[in-house]
User: What shape does this take?
Amino acid sequence: MKKGFLPFFLFLFFPLFGQLPPGYVAYFPLDGHTRDLSPFHLDGFGYQIIPAFGIVNGAFLFNGFNSTITSSTFNRHIIDTVTIAAWFKTNASNHYGFIAAKYNWVEDRGYHLSVYWDGYGFLGGRNNGGQYQIIRTLKRVNDGQWHHLAGVVEGNTWKLYLDGRLQGVVHSSSIRPDLQNSDPFTIGYYYRGDNGCHCYFNGIIDEVILYNRALTDREIRVLANPYFYGISDQSAEGFAVFPNPIKKEEKIRVTSAYPLSSIRIYDLTGRLIFEYRINPPSTIWEEEFPARKKGVYLLQAETNHQIITRKILVE
Assistant: This one.
């Protein structure tokens, strides 16, 4: 567990344990790498990005003038419906930065999450109707704190959520809504640029995810809830999980300096998948990891001092 991160917010993910929620088409955890852990495995290429503390595990710091992550031009089966979401932190003022995007204004198609010059977050894009759609957050987000931004487009309906709360809804009038375009999916900047502006993000970005369906209000609230997992801001000295990554049906071993009282596994919609009460508490727990499918999982360990959360990758 990382030291020095206060508060230690929720590790907001989505598809995890067991069966992934349908529509999960891109997942960049940004834990010291730019791999896409979705079924498509369309990894990104990073440039001038610096490892940083994230929500849980790692993230990347973007410098505001040339930091980029660039993935594939493939539309990931997204046609007229998408959910795009990410955690971010910035204190930049008078700076316009793209958090994540697949947007091409020339083709009149695409979508992006951004922070505008005035410090407000927004969802912007076009869906083949000749008009640019935009929804802004109700408050500024350049306060140096972690925020979760999620945009949902479903046909001609556009919604924006900040930290799980609906910020606004707009309706476009495209006869044939279509978000598909030829630009790559990017994190931290705008690939095509607009009037010379590539809108490089200045701050930290973590946990970028795409669905090719519209997440419900409840799903977004759960994913954006910073206290859902009850993660402590205390350090986790002596805590280790091995092996990680792990193979299906392989045993996993958790060790801790303080006696463990319970182990839980959650999916990223907040559903408890597995719980093991350790009685009497012990500094070592070992069991077959109850995953039947490859993917990313969330393991939560509780001691009498803290609650510790770790990502588990099942290969």
